[in-house]
Amino acid sequence: MGDFVKYQALGNDYLIVDPRGGSTALGTEPAPGAVRLLCDRHLGAGADGLLFGPLDAPRPGVAAALRIFNADGSECGMSGNGLRMFALYLGEHYVREWRTGTPFTVRTPGGEAEVRITDITDGRVCVDMGLARFAAGGGTDGGGAATTVVPLAGAGPDAEVTVTDLHLGVPHTVVLSDTIDGELVRRLGPALAWHPRHPEGTNVEFVRVHDDRTLDVAVWERAAGAVPASGSGACAAAAVARARGLVGSDVTVRMPGGEVEVSVAGDGRISSAGTAREVMTGVLSRSLLKELAQWGPTSDEPSGRRGT
């Protein structure tokens, strides 16, 4: 087995570092700087994030523990695409019965999620994302999806943007728009993701309602910037659109990287279904392993470079 396994879901890619295989390139406690280096697309293996797990031996009836890290080294509570990839990894490498549709649970710092591999050949996985928690705001559009008018620096149409904030394992900010393009995402994405009202950042979804069964979504993640797809972002977009009565309970979410199917049950529970696949198994060079080892478990600087 190599130092990592790389998976992708709709172009959103993660490195899986498995501590069950013995010593890892990140030790037993991934340092933020080491995660950042490993995810760097020029200096490391390159990815939108990192999945560190399983933390215990996977077995039926017991939740599989997982830690999720963003590409900037910060820890993440939940990732819809990350859960899809990790579920496939467990089915392909550990528990055979999980390959045939038996539901099992993955536990992350953001909570527990039930997952189910519905087609191991196509890499199709269903994920129960749980209930969305809508933030209070200045206006109400029904279903608890309050809106807030956010002032941004500058004049013109971007001086104020109407958003809906919610939490789905991680924070999300949804912007409904009649049109979506890359320029809009690059212009407003970072301004909203790191607005003073979100000191720890938020993931931003720009949403266009195509019809009552289809949403077009572009995502700016607080840690990775523009990404081709986001599983939890798709769920956040569907939750807001459903709460406002713009779509039905089952919706196709189209993103630059591809589509996922999202369902919002009568009790508000959100689930998504989409595909993922293994890309490669990687072996790191000795020089990179040495550089990763310089990072202490709690330091944000390599041990040999502190004070520079």
Main β sheet profile: 15 strands, mixed
Q: What's the CATH topology label of the largest domain?
A: Diaminopimelate Epimerase, Chain A, domain 1
Secondary-structure-derived class: alpha+beta
Radius of gyration: 19 Å
* Total domain modules: 2
| Net shape | globular
H/E series? EEHEEEEHEEEEEEEEHEEEHEEEEH
Q: Please work out how many helical segments DSSP would assign.
A: 5
CATH class of the largest domain: Alpha Beta
Task: Spell out the CATH superfamily of the largest domain.
Answer: Diaminopimelate Epimerase, Chain A, domain 1
Cα-to-Cα separation, first versus last residue: 37 Å
How is this structure best summarized?
With 308 residues, this protein is α+β, with helices and mostly antiparallel strands. The protein contains five helices and 21 strands. β16 and β17 (225-227) form a beta hairpin.
